[in-house]
Amino acid sequence: QVTTTVEPSLQVAPYACQRRTPLDHPHSALVMALETLAEAALFEGEEARGLAFTRAASVLRCLPRALRGTHELSGLPGIGAHSHRVLQEVLEDGVCVEVETVKQSERYQTMKLFTQIFGVGVRTADRWYREGLRSLGDLRSHGTRLTREQQAGVQYFEDLAVPVGQAEAESLVCLVLDATAHLLPNASVTLAGGFRRGKPCGHDVDLLLSHPEEGREVGLLGSLVAWLGEQDLLLYQHSSYSTAAEASSSCRALDRFDRCFTILRLVLPTAGTRVRAWRAVRLDLVVVPHSQLPFALLGWTGSRHFERELRRFARHEREMVLNSHGLYDMRQGTFLLASSEEEIFQHLGLDYIPPTLRNA
Ligand code: TTP
Ligand code: MN
Ligand code: MN
Ligand code: MN
């Protein structure tokens, strides 16, 4: 009589918003390989291919234990033939030749450098690459025309390349709390983005501003931006304001909150006088009417892949449209209200996933 101990097989739900994805996981080499190929595909404008690699990487991020071999890949959703080959190679050889080739290529390195500049997307980076530009120095020596945003991005490139740490994020929250306390008493300031998911650092800080009395938040963005300017803390800002007409025609993919993308002068707590006492950091400010706050919080907490999957799940599994303003039930023809993120998950018939487990 032979008894075999069967390993509990890895069960993975098809949508990332059905899964619990912590920040730390045992597959960083595998995830990095797939995410490099995802990034490289996006650099070539191949969105679908990029998404396929991102989906596969996201599945590996959520596995509750380390893979015991290639055989376990076959039971997992979202691992296409190409991803499977890459994973097999990394599992067996430690590296994947295709990934290493991409990482060493001039194309990948240049696209990565250019798209890292604030205000530069794939299309601009690609145009510069085709013009023969390869470095920030090349942009300068060729007199490349830059938008105001890109000029700021190049000017503060070195500072912005250093990730924002948790202490810096906290001091930005304090700064904005302090300002809003004067400008609009009882206004709320909520940290969203990667820091809310528990990341120790990020490329920026994302803050949602609101007020418990709906309507009182109107005008807050303008006065906050003016205040930051008066304190000489604004190195760059780009605000957009939603018009009343736009705000009422909701149900669109892009959100229409009053928002401001900034580069801030963050004053550093240094003792010496010879040390430069500030550095540039990216801060995103979004002003949200109170009734939409749970939706905005859910939408601005990320990860980007988690958000994409929530919306895909809502549409394809529930016939609902989810965005940062609300949740629309197409069968009932009504908007579903929510006073917390938990209620939104309930409306969608999903188990609640806390922010720290949305690192899909
Ligand atoms: P990001 O700040 O771009 O990403 P992040 O905070 O997850 O990562 P990092 O730590 O590197 O900053 O975006 C945060 C969330 O905000 C993301 O889930 C998408 C959402 N978002 C919008 O909903 N609308 C927008 O216009 C932008 C720029 C972001
Ligand atoms: Mn291929
Ligand atoms: Mn962020
Ligand atoms: Mn952001």
**Percentage of residues assigned to helices:** 40-55%
Mean pLDDT: 94
Q: pLDDT below 50 for ≥5 consecutive residues: which ranges?
A: none
Bound molecules: thymidine-5'-triphosphate, manganese (II) ion
Secondary-structure-derived class: alpha+beta
Strand order of the largest sheet: 2-4-7-6-5
Radius of gyration from the alpha-carbon trace, in angstroms: 23 Å
Task: Provide the succession of SSEs.
Answer: HHHHHHHHHEHEHEEHEHEEHHEEEH
Number of strands: 10
Reported for the largest beta sheet, the result is: 5 strands, mixed
Q: Which word captures the global form?
A: globular
**End-to-end distance:** 44 Å
Beta-strand percentage range: 5-15%
The number of helical elements comes to 16
Structural notes for this entry:
This protein is α+β, with helices and mostly antiparallel strands. 45% of the residues lie in helices and 14% in strands. The strands form 3 sheets. A 5-stranded mixed β-sheet has the order 2-4-7-6-5, sandwiched between helices. A 3-stranded antiparallel β-sheet has the order 8-9-10. β9 (327-329) and β10 (334-336) form a beta hairpin. The model has no long low-confidence stretch (mean pLDDT 94). Bound molecules: thymidine-5'-triphosphate and manganese (II) ion (MN) (3 copies). Residues 193-194, 199, 202-204, 206, 255, 299-300, 302-304, 307, 324 line the site of thymidine-5'-triphosphate (TTP).
Topology:
Elements: H1 28-43, H2 47-61, H3 81-93, H4 97-104, H5 106-116, H6 122-130, H7 136-141, H8 148-155, H9 157-161, E1 164-165, H10 166-183, E2 188-191, H11 193-196, E3 201-202, E4 205-210, H12 220-230, E5 234-240, H13 244-248, E6 258-267, E7 278-287, H14 293-301, H15 304-318, E8 320-322, E9 327-329, E10 334-336, H16 341-348
Parallel strand pairs: 4-7
Antiparallel strand pairs: 1-3, 2-4, 5-6, 6-7, 8-9, 9-10
Helix pairs in contact: 1-2, 1-3, 5-6, 10-12
The protein binds thymidine-5'-triphosphate and manganese (II) ion (3 copies).
One manganese (II) ion (MN) is lined by residues 193, 204, 206, 284.
